[in-house]
Specification:
120 residues; mainly alpha
Length: 120
């Protein structure tokens, strides 16, 4: 973000939602997948898009905020259902993003139901 001074550190809820919408977009996710090593240019793009939405944030701030939100997501995901997931405004966005890009996807899914049961 050349020429723009970014000082504030606290992200508002709306600012975080905007950041996550940008981060979760197909375009940004493709950029992350295409660049195997350095994601600096992708984070700069995220920062530019934040600026287009009137949120002046550096690429580093965007990266740190997403990192912290991801950590909070995994912490809440380990909690028993209903004990903190439901009231966290970013849970659904991360569930969709991380659920679709699972590290281990099954080659085949086998149905264990007996065909005779289905006919009755």
């Amino acid at each position: 973000m050349a020429g723009t001074t970014v000082i504030k550190s606290h992200f508002t809820k709306n600012e975080s939602l905007c950041l996550l919408q940008i981060f979760c977009s197909d375009n940004i996710q493709k950029q992350f997948k295409n660049l195997k090593k350095s994601h600096v240019s992708v984070w700069e793009n995220v920062s530019l898009q934040m600026g287009e939405n009137n949120y002046n944030r550096s690429s580093r701030q965007c990266k740190e905020r997403v990192k912290n939100l991801k950590a909070e997501f995994f912490k809440r995901k380990r909690m028993p259902s209903g004990s903190g997931q439901d009231n966290w405004p970013y849970f659904e966005m991360f569930s969709k993003l991380l659920g679709e890009s699972a590290i281990c996807k099954p080659v085949m899914v086998v149905d264990s139901l007996d065909e005779d049961v289905l006919e009755k």
